[in-house]
Fold each of these.
Amino acid sequence: MKQQEIMLNTLIDDHILNGFSEKEIGDDHLFSGLETPMKLNAHELSDEEKKEKISGLFAQIMDVMGLDLTNDSLKGTPNRVAKMYIDEIFSGLNPANKPKISLFDNSYKYNQMLVEKNITFYSNCEHHFVPIIGKAHVAYVSSGKVIGISKINRIVQYYAKRPQVQERLTNQIAIELKSILNTEDIAVIIDAKHLCVSSRGIKDDTSATVTSYYSGVFNQPHKIIELQNYLNQ
Ligand SMILES: [Zn+2]
C-alpha cells in the first residue's frame, strides 16, 4: 500500500481529515481508491471564480502555443472552455450538482431484476483530458424501494462528468446505487471508447474497454447470464 493511502485510511478511521470532520467534508470527498482524488479546499472558490481563473490559464496555454488571441475566432475560446469545464463536462466534481433522488415503495411487488441499458455517457479521461464515450448498463433488484428510472441515468451522468478512469466510474455508480437503494443486488457494466487510445497514442480506433461491478445476487452465474441475455436483445 502506498504511503499516502496508509495515511488517508488512518485518517478516515479517525473520522478526521486534516482538521475537517467527515461530515464537514461530505460524502463526495473522502480519500480512497473509490473517490475522485480532490483537494480538501476543492470547493472554496465559487463556480464563477473558477471559470475566471480557468479562462485566464487557458488563454496562457493558447498563447504559449502561439495562437493569436486577438483573432475573432479564438478570442472567446478561453471563456468558452472555462464555462464548458465548470458547467458541463466537469460539473460532477461539484457535490451541489449531485442529483436529488427520491425513492418510492415497490408497490407492484416486482422482485426480479430491473435493467436500464444503453445509457449513453460522455466522460473525460483524467490522464489526457480527452473524451471517453460509452454506454452504461445498470441493473438492480429492489429491497423494498424503487428509484425513478431516469434517476439511474442522472447518477451515471453525474459521475461521468468528472475527469475519470473507467474502473472508478463503474465503481462509483455501483456504490452510489447500493447506498441509495439499500441493496447489495447491483450490477453495472460499462462499455466505452477512449479517445486517448483512438485519436492519439496507439491510434487504435476499433478497441473498446469493458468494466463491470457485480454484487449480491449478481454474483450468481445464472443471474449474470440472465442480465447478459437482456443486454444482447
Ligand atoms: Zn487517457
Amino acid sequence: MAKPAKLTGTVEIAIMEQLSQQAAAWLIGITPRALRDQDAPRRPDGCYDARSLTEWATSRITQVKLTDGELEKLLTVVDSMSGLLTPAMLSDLDELHSKHGVSGWLAFLVTFIEESKADIARYPDATRPKAQEDIDLAVAECHERMENSIASDALKVATVCEDCGKLRRGRKWVVEDPPADHCVAEWVCPRCEKKRAKAEKKQTEKH
Ligand SMILES: [Zn+2]
C-alpha cells in the first residue's frame, strides 16, 4: 500500500469540519447509534463538526439525563459501594472538586473504573459472577469452618470423623457418642482418609 500523502493542517481541519457519523462517534468514544439518538450539533448537510462536537461532549458531562433503566443500574453499583467511602476520603474528593470542578470527581471515577478492570483481569475467579448455588456452597463451607474454629476454641472438644461418625480417643477411633458437654470438631479418621484417597484415585483413572 502506498504511503498516504502527508496532510497539511488546513486539509486536516477541513476534514474535521465534516466528520461522518462513524468518525464523530469514534472521536467522543460513543457508538454511532448513541450519537444519532442524542442532540449532538450537526451541520445542515448531516455531517459533524469536530470542534462543536467536542464542546458539546464536554458540556454534556454535567448535564447527562439518565433513563430510569440506566439510573437503576447505576444505583445497584452505588449500593454495593456505599459505606466504602469514609468521611476522610470524601473530604479528599471534595478537595479535588474544589480545585478541578467536576473533572476532579471524574478523575476519581476513571481511576476507580480502570483499577477495577485491572483487578478483574488479575483475579478473574474472585470477580466472576456466581450462580446462587455456588454462593450457597461457599457460605455453607464458611459456616462450617467457623463452627469448627469456634468449637476448637471451646474448652472441651470431641473430635469426630465426618465420614464414619467415629469418635477419636487417642490413637483409636471408636463407635461412641461424643460427651454431651463437649463441642464437636469434625475431622477425618485414618481409615476414611484412605478410603477417600482410593476413591479419588479411581475417579482420576476413569478420566
Ligand atoms: Zn471415619
